[in-house]
Amino acid sequence: MPETVLVTGGTGYIGGWCVAELLRRGHTVRTTVRAPGREQAVLDAVSTVTDPGGRLEFAVADLTADAGWDEAVRGVDRVLHVASPLGTTDSGDLVTPARDGTLRVLRAATAAGVRRVVLTSAANTASPSSYASEGVTDETLWTDPDDPTLIPYRRAKTLAERAAWDFMARYDGPTELTTVLPGAVFGPVLTASTEGSVGIVARMLTGAMRGVPRIGLEIVDVRDLVDLHLRAMTEPAAADQRFLGTGEFLWMADMARVLRDGLGDLGHRVPTRQLPDFVVRLAARFGDPTLREILPALGRRNRHSTEKAHRLLDWQPRPAEEAVLDCARSLIDKGLVQQPS
Where is the NAD-dependent epimerase/dehydratase domain (predicted)? Predict the structure, then answer.
């Protein structure tokens, strides 16, 4: 039955697709924006794939502040907490805003008696500490947040999800929690944005990436990830569960070949050379400090099992190649990547 669903972060990549798909399935959607004036951007983006039909509402609420959250959840049946304040602080502390933002949403949702909250976490909260691991892990594993080799993003996402489950363990009420742990998210974009994983494809298409590092990604299409969220939102068996939402594993060199072969002339700038690990390490040390966070992932082959999502939710993601190509075509169609003259 159609319900009223709050989606945090409707201006984001995953959040925008959540809003669009919920509307497409007949729900009424309320989505948060951090400040007034951003509503039209969400409406314009969503309208490219579905007609909101007067069923899209907005609430102003920032994950770094208490104001607005009680109003945001009022009258809501379910919550998809997709937004993350990671990267919005100047202090360098990623843990506090990620954890406190999650707890703000849960406090408001439980106080309002929301039926279920689905929290978007990350697959790297269920990964072994050893980057040399080549096994297959599932949702029963938790990343060790005290591992000194963890990059700040992994630690923040892990501690934020841990805080959510700890909060629910102390809570005695009707609200249920489910978490979804995505891999690298690709697929079509709704807005003129190249944030997150999408930026990898954009850099390949523009030639900004001169060579590809030896890094592998578990690729999930944003449309399939949203489908997983919606299944987790309503399926009774999903209550109090974690679900990995990863897809096929592709090395970045394989992604480059997919783009070259699938796009023809439009992919002529995509790099074909795989960079030796020592070159990436030297560049991170002496040239591009932003590369330092990817160094632990060089050559890593650890993968995640999505058997639980298949078994309990009948979730079936599309092939990784389709997600990568649809992402590239979308970036080209929206003019985010210059076509060859």
Answer: 5-240
